[in-house]
Amino acid sequence: MKTKNLLLFLVIIAISFGACKKDDKGSDLLDENGLTPAINNIVPDEILQEMKTLGMPINTGALPPSLVNTYLASPFILKASNRSGDYAGQSFSDYRVTLSNQNNTNLSISLSYVNGPENGSGIGAFISGDGNTFSVFAKVASTYNGTNADLLMVISGTLVDGGINNFYYANFMLENYGNPGWIANGEGRIIYDSDGFSPIVTSMKSIEENTKGSSAGTK
Q1: Comparing C-alpha atoms, which of 125, 121, 113, 99 is closest to residue 42?
Q2: Distance CA 40, CA 38 (A)
Q3: Contact, 142 vs 216, CB < 8 A?
Q4: 113-132 pLDDT, tens per residue?
Q5: Half-sphere exposure of residue 126, counting CA atoms within 13 Å on the CB side?
Q6: Residue 22 pLDDT > 90
Q7: What is d(CA 142, CA 159) in angstroms, rounded to the nearest whole number?
């Protein structure tokens, strides 16, 4: 009887330890694809799969690093696109993004950005990740040459001292409201910081005027 009780006690301890490990990783907050329900609610699965097919890294998990800061991605170079006429190596205006109001309880975050003549802010933004790796997912209301559009933006990378390594950016059109200056609904691009490091900067304003065009403009 004592042996059975001891075995039962050890089984209970093992189950409890496993449950603690699960909670430590925050996996109880995640759907099967490793992202939160809030992220899956704003990111259509077909667009998520298209991003992955084009080479966009998606970092899953519920323990992201603290990202509150402003970052500069430059030189900003096209990796892949589902648009005819785009080509790998195409360059775009520097991309500056401010991430703020990070809440690691509900994994929400605020996003605003400037990309040449284009700028915008998140209607809803959420974060995933584990350790220093992360992905930010945002539905964004954007303005370009006096017209408006709704975009889906994803930023992935690894937080390091002074900035972000391997900054990757996906930009897909949700609704261009018929404005011809934007890419078409459903079209998107994967762009990255080609020197591998995106430093923290103090301002959203660029010293030099960007003339290369924006990541969501038809260019």
Answers
A1: 125
A2: 6
A3: yes
A4: 999 999 999 988 999 999 99
A5: 19
A6: no
A7: 26
Mean model confidence pLDDT for the chain: 88
Q: What are phi and psi of 42, to 5 degrees?
A: -100, -10
The CA R_g of the chain, rounded to the nearest whole Å, is 20
Please, which residues bridge with residue 141 across strands? 121, 150
What does the DSSP assignment read for the chain? -HHHHHHHHHHHHHHHHHHHHHHHHTGGG--TTSS-HHHHHHS-HHHHHHHHHTT------EEPPP--EEEEE-SEEEEEESSTT--TT-EE--EEEEEEEEETTTTEEEEEEEETTEEEEEEEEEEEEETTEEEEEEEEEEEETTEEEEEEEEEEEEEETTEEEEEEEEEEEEE-TT-TTBPPTT-EEEEEETTSEEEB-S-SS-SSPP-S--SSB--
Q: What is the pLDDT of residue 193?
A: 98
Torsional class of 54: left (φ above 0), alpha (ψ -120 to 50), beta (otherwise): alpha
Contacts for 108 with CB less than 8 Å, ≥ 6 apart? 38, 101, 102, 124, 125, 126, 127
For residues 170 and 189, the answer to whether their CB atoms sit within 8 Å is yes
CB 72 within 8 A of CB 195: no
Report residue 148 as tokens. Answer: 């408006």
Query: What is the pTM for the complete model shown?
Result: 0.86
Let me know: does 165 contact 197? Beta carbons within 8 Å: yes
